[in-house]
Inverse folding.
């Protein structure tokens, strides 16, 4: 008996030493010649439960460095977190904005960013027992949210390009800037559907249609990850937000979502399924619940569907504080420890914020979370760190960051994306393009010369010299003209109004360009929740109201232009001076009056740092606009929701107005015209069903231009209720004047399949209609075809 006790004590002592001693330099997990699985399998047993849980923590990163002049080092906060919690990941280490209190002065420029991340990795490699590198995740939805980074148009503008190759190029540039500074994970793309314009985060989405969202999302994933994250210019892509986040009740950010399983899978999960098939390596949960189950504890979606059925190999990360939200918001648990156990057991692998999963150590000891589940989550994270090569080469070249970040090539790309994103909504009597021989032009409005209002949410402070406003873009085009700028009014505040000055400027001009809209520009007066979302705070009478009316946390009850913007525009139009309206904004607004009364209207969304140049390029004809709306523009809030592919039956008109939107999905004008002809459909069912659509497109105008050819499909009879029509193909085509081109677009069996009453995904035998045109309501050609035999799609 005594002998057995001694052996047991010796065994326990050996295991303790194995778990706590520093491994030798020849430990197998440090051997780059071994396979990733071999290295993971060697490292995991060496880790204590505290070290394992540490790999699942992702605390706020901007607290983890100290900057003094041109020097930067890891902070005491970081040293303490490494020592006590063994953290394995940071979020927003390079982030700067009013919430983080990091400014152009206190934050990190690209060169210092590279030094800071190297210092971080050096400490993790040399001052910890196992030397596990740190993963650094950064917000990257329209460029890196870091000082000095290239700022591209926000996602709603990106989607307006309808150009997947361009988005892949943009994402590739963003990834390159991230890696040059030492970051590894890009948060994006957002795959939520924007069918609720009152919701504050429409600007972050690719619009209302599952097919368009999926194509744009896949392009970003390919740009971020390329052929593999072992490439030192690539980053992991984190999909947001799983799932159905953008259609919360009443447009309230994070509120409950109500929908059936069929609509969830057919519409809202479709872009995510396509993204996982493309190889996305990280998925973020949503704050909302679906039919009573919070997304952060939705085991059926996270485990059964995402991991088991779809074969997702990456890791699931909670949105910031959403695990604690199971207690504080959703009220489905009695403690944060219970929330940690529930989310872990439901399939969440990483805790963004890091406060909840710290409690899981005790939950493992209590038996509420299995060691196997912890090991599985840790292995998902470690596997990607090995795959990225961080155990072997965790450092970046500090001398390259300034050359790569916001390079001349990337600035040109930002201008190109902005040009392609601009949508021409109206052009009465061909007022546009404007003549470059104008002698006087009035530039008016709250967004005409406001740097941050044109950048959108999730943007770091930037050097004003890097941002070209609309006023500056017009001045660049007309260096010899008299350009009179009058702000006229603010976006929201009514005390900053001088409409008389705007009227005087318009009367003295040959043309007035009025730049209106909204803003997601955060400021240091704004209050923030712990999640980083802005709060709509009450303002004292004597205080100036900030411009922010969009961006995370700023949900709207109406969609009217705020403040005195309408009054400003009405006064300018009343002068009789030809008026062009340019909208810079993050969500669809009610623009009925401008569309009826202004001579020309452009929508530029948030066009990014080169927005002013791009808008001027369009205004003066150096670029022929071809952007198309990725969302429908409503006539009133009473119509909501309004999107083109609502399910049968067709919507009836209201007593007060039509049920149709003011402007439909896919809409956009050009400075030229296009003719569609000769549509032919050929059905092939040799190995797999394929439908070939060919047509002829001609530029019948006098200038070169681009048309976005859109292919829609209508299922004429299905066993379950289906949308009125579905976008199933598109192509942006550039043609010279008079040029004719034959186009071919293909439809796959997935494009025709529906979820049956038993939730099987099936192409049902029967009749279908292909419709081709310039928008969801501008169908130029159509043709029916037949599927003879039903096909179950795996």
């Amino acid at each position: 008996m005594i002998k057995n006790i001694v052996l047991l004590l010796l065994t326990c002592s050996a295991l303790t030493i194995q778990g706590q001693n520093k491994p030798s330099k020849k430990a197998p997990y440090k051997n780059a010649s071994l396979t990733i699985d071999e290295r993971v399998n060697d490292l995991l047993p060496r880790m204590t439960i505290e070290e394992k849980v540490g790999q699942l923590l992702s605390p706020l990163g901007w607290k983890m460095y100290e900057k003094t002049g041109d020097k930067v080092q890891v902070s005491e906060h970081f040293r303490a977190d490494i020592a006590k919690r063994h953290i394995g990941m940071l979020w927003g280490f390079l982030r700067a904005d009013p919430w983080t209190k990091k400014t152009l002065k206190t934050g990190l420029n690209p060169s210092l960013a590279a030094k800071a991340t190297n210092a971080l990795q050096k400490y993790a490699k040399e001052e910890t027992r196992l030397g596990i590198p740190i993963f650094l995740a950064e917000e990257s939805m329209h460029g890196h949210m870091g000082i000095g980074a290239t700022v591209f148009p926000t996602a709603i503008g990106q989607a307006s390009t309808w150009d997947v190759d361009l988005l892949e190029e943009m994402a590739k540039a963003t990834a390159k800037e991230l890696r040059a500074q030492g970051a590894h994970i890009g948060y994006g793309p957002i795959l939520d559907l924007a069918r609720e314009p009152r919701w504050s985060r429409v600007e972050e989405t690719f619009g209302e249609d599952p097919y368009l969202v999926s194509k744009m999302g896949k392009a970003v994933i390919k740009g971020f990850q390329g052929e593999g994250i072992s490439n030192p210019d690539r980053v992991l892509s984190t999909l947001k937000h799983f799932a159905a986040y953008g259609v919360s009740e009443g447009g309230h950010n994070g509120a409950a979502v109500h929908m059936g399983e069929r609509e969830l899978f057919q519409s809202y999960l479709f872009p995510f399924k396509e993204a996982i098939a493309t190889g996305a390596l990280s998925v973020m949960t949503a704050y909302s619940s679906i039919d009573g189950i919070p997304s952060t504890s939705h085991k059926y979606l996270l485990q059964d569907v995402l991991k088991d059925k779809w074969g997702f190999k990456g890791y699931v990360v909670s949105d910031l504080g959403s695990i604690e939200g199971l207690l504080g918001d959703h009220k489905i648990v009695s403690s944060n420890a219970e929330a940690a156990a529930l989310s872990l057991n439901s399939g969440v692998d990483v805790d963004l914020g890091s406060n909840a999963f710290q409690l899981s150590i005790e939950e493992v000891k209590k038996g509420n979370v299995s060691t196997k589940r912890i090991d599985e989550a840790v292995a998902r994270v470690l596997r990607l760190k090995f795959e990225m090569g961080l155990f072997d080469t965790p450092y970046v070249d500090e001398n390259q960051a300034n050359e790569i970040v916001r390079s001349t090539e990337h600035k040109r790309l930002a201008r190109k994306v902005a040009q392609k994103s601009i949508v021409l909504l109206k052009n009465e009597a061909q007022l546009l393009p404007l003549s470059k021989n104008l002698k006087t032009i009035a530039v008016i409005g709250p967004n005409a010369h406001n740097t941050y209002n044109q950048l959108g949410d999730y943007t770091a402070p930037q050097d004003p010299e890097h941002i070209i406003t609309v006023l500056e873009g017009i001045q660049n085009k007309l260096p010899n003209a008299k350009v009179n700028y009058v702000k006229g009014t603010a976006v929201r505040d009514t005390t900053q109004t001088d409409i008389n000055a705007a009227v005087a400027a318009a009367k003295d001009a040959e043309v007035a360009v009025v730049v209106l809209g909204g803003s997601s520009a955060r400021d240091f007066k704004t209050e923030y929740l712990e999640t980083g979302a802005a709060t709509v705070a009450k303002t004292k009478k004597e205080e100036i109201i900030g411009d922010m009316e969009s961006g995370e946390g700023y949900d709207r009850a109406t969609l009217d232009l705020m403040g005195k913007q309408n009054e400003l525009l009405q006064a300018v139009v009343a002068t009789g001076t030809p008026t062009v309206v340019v909208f810079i904004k993050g969500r669809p607004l009610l623009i009925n009056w401008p569309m009826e009364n202004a001579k020309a209207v452009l929508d530029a969304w948030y066009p990014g740092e080169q927005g002013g140049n791009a808008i001027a390029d369009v205004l003066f004809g150096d670029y022929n606009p071809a952007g198309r709306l990725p969302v429908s523009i409503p006539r009133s809030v009473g119509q909501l929701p309004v999107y083109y592919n609502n399910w049968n039956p067709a919507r009836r008109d209201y007593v007060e107005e039509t049920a149709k939107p003011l402007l439909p999905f896919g809409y956009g004008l050009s400075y030229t015209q296009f003719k569609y002809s000769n549509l032919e459909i050929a059905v092939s069912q040799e190995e797999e069903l394929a439908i070939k659509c060919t047509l002829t497109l001609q530029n019948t105008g006098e200038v070169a231009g681009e048309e976005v050819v859109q292919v829609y499909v209508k299922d004429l009879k299905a066993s379950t209720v289906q949308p009125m029509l579905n976008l199933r193909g598109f192509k942006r085509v550039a043609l010279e004047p008079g040029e004719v081109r034959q186009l071919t677009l293909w439809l796959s069996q997935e494009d025709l399949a529906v979820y049956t009453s038993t939730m099987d995904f099936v192409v049902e035998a029967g009749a279908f209609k292909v419709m081709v045109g310039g928008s969801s309501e501008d169908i130029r050609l159509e043709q029916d075809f037949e599927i003879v035999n039903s096909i179950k799609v795996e």
The first helix runs from residue 2 to 20.
